[in-house]
Amino acid sequence: MVNDCAKSKELSRRFNKIYPAGHSNNKDPYEVADYRLFIQKAKGAHVWDIDGNEYIEFNSAFGPTLLGHCNEEYVRELEDALETSATLAGSNLLFSTDDVEVGEIITKYVPCAEQIKFNMTGSEAVQMAIRIARAYTGKRMILRFTDNYHGWFDNIYGGKPGDLRSGELPVAQEDPSSDYQTLGKFPQAIKESIILPWNDFEAFRETMEKYHEDIAIVHFEPIVCNHFGFFPKPGFMELIRELCTKYNVVMSMDEIITGFRLGFGGAQEYFGVTPDICTLAKSIAGGLPMACVAGQRKVMSILDDRKVAASGTFNGWNLGMRAILATTRILERDNGAAYRKMYALQDKLIGGILESAEKHGIKMRINDCPGAFFTLFGVEGGRKRVYTADELEGIDILQFKKFRRILQEEEGIITLPATRWYMNISHTEEDIDHTIAAVDRVMTKL
User: Which of 113, 153, 110, 112 is nearest to 131 (CA)?
Assistant: First the structure.
């Protein structure tokens, strides 16, 4: 049972005076309660707030903390880097052996990776991928899909499909109802994109056939983890690969979330479809900010002659490189034993949640991929993949919000908004057993 959060509530009052809408925000608030939790201590999958309450968390800071908190080996590696090397050696002026080792690890495990360009955040990496693709193809348009998220920059934030039957280039339109809509965007930025319905074979094929001379890049989340985890329908990614090859369009997978979470090879290894380039971030550095574009030499080498700018003071910064190196060493040990344990515990947790929902007569469908799952209240089906919004008829987001709030405020279990749960390798059998019991108690109150 969580006790009074008086200190967090008081700090929330002071915090909200200084930080409008917190540190990061979309239309839908991230907060589960009417105050913010202030964390004083963390270890593994557990955090303790400033009032002394202990929580088990399944949010992974929206993805990066795949190792859990304060992994001892990870911390020692970062301490060593801080004590013996420079925090920042100098923006492409000085280098370390970590640079070479990290590059060799990523090119070893990520199928498309032959060359790499580092950035700090996923949003930056997506913009770098777009620039590389435009330079490589000599074309201008971005083709992307509904419900996919690619960062907060104007040209890829929000929007809806244009008129595919007009006979003219179907540039994207603004969508005021979307959670990914914002005031302050440059009005013409949306016109850099063509947006198509996710998993619509006909629309994609027709658009590529008609407008491939304008399209530089097809950029997409292979699993739409930012929107209920929609999977690609069988054959859809293969079609993207086929037509990108046919029409000299750069196929770019947004593996900001799926990279390392689905294993080292990410979604491209999971599905057996290799893009020309991909964007990686979040999990690759175990919690520190690091991102990159990784891709085939034929595309990435466009950067070699320096006609394409790819600058950044913190690109490849020392501590971030050591963080990637430490993360990969931990994850690859014993042939990926940490992954196998995490996925097994995820299976157990999903089974327990579904069993409780059935016992209490609550409609529930769970869509999952390795390392993440989505509890879809109001939808029948049990554990079953979801491909499009049409399959979510009856989804009850308000019931999930109530569930999430009780789970956190009364049971000390922290999850993400929009029905999402993230696993990390520090979760234990005891954590899962405790969470299943807590979920069952909350189900009785719904």
Answer: 153
DSSP 408-441: HHHH-EE--STTEEE--TT--HHHHHHHHHHHHH
**Do 317 and 289 contact (CB within 8 A), yes or no?**
no
Q: Whole-angstrom Cα distance, residue 85 to residue 383?
A: 48
Average pLDDT over residues 342-359: 98
Reported as a single tens digit per residue, the pLDDT across 230-279 is 999 999 999 999 999 999 999 999 999 999 999 999 999 999 999 999 99
Closest CA to 295 of 272, 313, 279: 279
How many angstroms separate the CA atoms of 336 and 216, rounded?
Answer: 36
Burial class (CB in 10 A: 0-12, 13-18, 19+), 6: exposed
Length in residues, the chain:
446
DSSP annotation of 231 reads P
pLDDT tens, residue by residue, 107-166: 999 999 999 999 999 999 999 999 999 999 999 999 999 999 999 999 999 999 998 888
Q: What ranges make up the beta strands (E) of 274-351?
A: 277-280, 291-295
Q: Is the pTM of this model over 0.90?
A: yes
Residue 3's CB: how many other CB atoms inside 10 A? 10
Q: What is the pLDDT of residues 198-214, one digit of tens each?
A: 999 999 999 999 999 99
